[in-house]
């Protein structure tokens, strides 16, 4: 799993005294982990333990966001749940910093830490589909593409994200939304149970009937409560073909098109999800060459239902104006799930900020148009996500994810290659985020919080933060999972 770095509870020291997470998440690295201890760990682990002296270490410590460059003392690539339990005990006994890795996509780089132990789950890849029961059991190293491939073999799917290389674990623990969430809910709304290794090394199950408070927290509370070694999800009939595709316009048309889009989105059936992306045109084969490198607005739509109904539902979107490209049509669901992969490859520097919105006000459209005219890099994009539908028919306190009253979310995804451009790119992103704030609902998505956003955790959990803090204190009173330095952790102290 790639847990978010947020720390959400006060903790207790070894004497039982209450204190803040900052006093546990040490500012300085703890004592080095001895080579003798690591050698003993290697003898107990069925998987692989890597240190800086081992071949493959540098590759294993790399994550999706190239801004993150950390050097753990040991990377424990677990083969099974027992390896995870042994690694947790080892890190706790060594009083070490702890990070947990699934897909390694977390924008803040929470999958790796300096000087501590990384529990790497990426080799735990089992997927077991039960088509009769409409369920699937998934280990935490599985990516979204791997999950889709197995479930689509039976014409089944569970809602997840939009980049096939994302890990299922980190996505799930933050909430999880994608093209079919308006029809079938968030990923967490389809979670049946989870097997968890707790901070004290116990193996327990969390479900509506067992450890129900932990199950509530896992559904949107991030990776703060233990290490999930297996997820069980509900499946739905879908595919193997869906109606989906892109409709592309020149950037100059964006304000008028977004105003029309908000009317169409308000009347859209649950089966239809349409996001829009504003960016510089990449050299895609279906775009005219003269458009490459210029500003565009792209409407990405998917219909989770029958093809004849999809044709009718898509008509208003396809009639908004005269596009420079319209590539909407029937295609395999797995192909659509990976359509954005070429734009989201690892190795680039990335910085994100996100807002939630109840609607799209004219003032917000003006802000987006203004900033889209001065992108700081060719790979930067504004991704505007349509939520609502089944997502919003769940109560805000039914799961840890509280944002059940918002209709849209923006991810300001700034992406570049040269470290010399860090200040300009990050500054532009923060400026746009502030300009959007007057039109926002006050919430944010926990999986989109960058490392330096010290208020992000409050916006992510809102009124659910207090209950999350209480559950954290119950299952991890020393704030151990994941235990990271103060500069890598945000704090939300429990209210008195």
Explain what you see.
The chain is globular, with a radius of gyration of 22 Å. It starts with 5 loop residues before the first strand and ends in a 5-residue tail after the last strand. It has 496 residues and is of the alpha+beta class. Strands 15, 16, 17, 18, 19, 20, 21 and 22 form an 8-stranded antiparallel beta sheet that branches. The protein has a 5-stranded antiparallel beta sheet with strand order 8-9-13-11-12. A 4-stranded mixed beta sheet has the order 4-5-7-6, with helices on one face. It is 26% helix and 23% strand.
What secondary-structure arrangement, pairings included, does this model have?
Blueprint: E1 6-7, E2 11-12, E3 18-19, H1 35-44, E4 48-50, H2 57-60, E5 74-77, H3 81-93, E6 98-101, E7 117-120, E8 127-130, E9 135-138, H4 144-152, E10 156-157, H5 168-174, H6 181-184, E11 191-197, E12 203-207, H7 212-218, E13 227-234, E14 236-237, E15 241-250, H8 254-267, E16 272-280, E17 295-303, H9 307-318, E18 325-326, E19 329-332, H10 333-337, E20 349-357, H11 362-372, E21 381-386, E22 408-416, H12 422-436, H13 456-461, H14 465-475, E23 490-491
Parallel strand pairs: 1-23, 5-7, 6-7
Antiparallel strand pairs: 2-3, 4-5, 8-9, 9-13, 10-14, 11-12, 11-13, 15-17, 15-18, 15-19, 16-17, 16-21, 20-22, 21-22
> How would a crystallographer describe the biggest sheet?
8 strands, antiparallel
Structural class: alpha+beta
CATH class of the largest domain: Alpha Beta
What coarse outline follows from CA principal-axis ratios? globular
Q: Which architecture of the largest domain does the CATH hierarchy give at level 2?
A: 3-Layer(aba) Sandwich
User: Mean pLDDT, as a whole number?
Assistant: 91
Radius of gyration: 22 Å
Domain tally: 3
Helix share of residues? 25-40%
- State the separation between the terminal residues, measured CA to CA: 31 Å
Number of strands: 23
Helix count equals 14
- Give the CATH topology of the largest domain: Vanillyl-alcohol Oxidase, Chain A, domain 3
**Beta-strand residue percentage:** 15-25%
């Amino acid at each position: 799993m790639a847990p978010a770095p947020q720390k959400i509870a006060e903790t207790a020291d070894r004497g039982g005294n209450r204190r803040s997470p900052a006093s546990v998440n040490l500012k300085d690295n703890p004592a080095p982990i001895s080579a003798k201890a690591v050698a003993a760990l290697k003898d107990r682990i069925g998987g692989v333990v890597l240190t800086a002296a081992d071949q493959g270490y540098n590759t294993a410590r790399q994550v999706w966001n190239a801004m993150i460059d950390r050097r753990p003392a040991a990377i424990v690539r677990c083969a099974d749940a027992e390896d995870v339990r042994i690694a947790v005990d080892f890190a706790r006994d060594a009083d070490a910093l702890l990070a947990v890795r699934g897909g390694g996509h977390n924008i803040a780089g929470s999958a790796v830490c300096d000087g501590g132990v990384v529990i790497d789950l990426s080799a735990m890849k089992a997927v077991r589909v039960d088509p009769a029961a409409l369920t699937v059991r998934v280990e935490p190293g599985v990516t979204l593409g791997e999950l889709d491939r197995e479930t689509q073999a039976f014409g089944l799917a569970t809602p997840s994200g939009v980049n096939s290389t994302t890990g299922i674990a980190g996505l799930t623990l933050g909430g999880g939304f994608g093209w079919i969430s308006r029809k079938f809910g968030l990923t967490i709304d389809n979670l049946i149970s989870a097997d968890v290794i707790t901070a004290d090394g116990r193996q327990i199950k969390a479900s509506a009937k067992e450890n129900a408070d932990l199950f509530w927290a896992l559904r949107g509370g991030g990776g703060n409560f233990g290490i999930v070694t297996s997820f069980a999800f509900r499946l739905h009939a879908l595919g193997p073909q869906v109606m989906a595709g892109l409709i592309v316009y020149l950037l100059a048309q964006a304000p008028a098109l977004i105003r029309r889009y908000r009317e169409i989105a308000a009347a859209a059936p649950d089966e239809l999800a349409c996001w829009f992306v504003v960016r510089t045109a990449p050299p895609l084969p279906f775009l005219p060459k003269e458009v490459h490198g210029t500003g565009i607005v792209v409407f990405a739509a998917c219909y989770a239902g029958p093809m004849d109904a999809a044709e009718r539902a898509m008509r208003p979107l396809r009639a908004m104006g005269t596009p420079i490209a319209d590539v909407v049509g029937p295609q395999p669901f797995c192909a659509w799930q990976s359509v954005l992969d070429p734009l989201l490859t690892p190795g680039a520097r990335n910085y994100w900020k996100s807002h939630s919105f109840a609607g799209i006000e004219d003032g917000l459209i003006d802000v987006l148009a203004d900033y889209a005219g001065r992108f700081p890099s060719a790979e930067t994009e504004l991704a505007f996500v349509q939520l609502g539908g089944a997502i919003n028919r769940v109560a805000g306190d039914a799961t840890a994810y509280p944002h059940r009253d918002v209709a849209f979310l923006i991810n300001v995804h700034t992406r570049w290659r040269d470290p010399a451009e860090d200040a300009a790119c990050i500054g532009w992103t923060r400026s746009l985020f502030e300009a959007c704030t007057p039109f926002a609902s006050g919430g944010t998505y926990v999986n989109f919080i960058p490392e330096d956003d010290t208020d992000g955790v409050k916006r992510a959990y809102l009124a659910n933060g207090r209950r999350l803090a209480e559950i954290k204190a119950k299952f991890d009173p020393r704030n151990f999972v994941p235990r990271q330095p103060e500069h890598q952790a945000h704090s939300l102290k429990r209210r008195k």
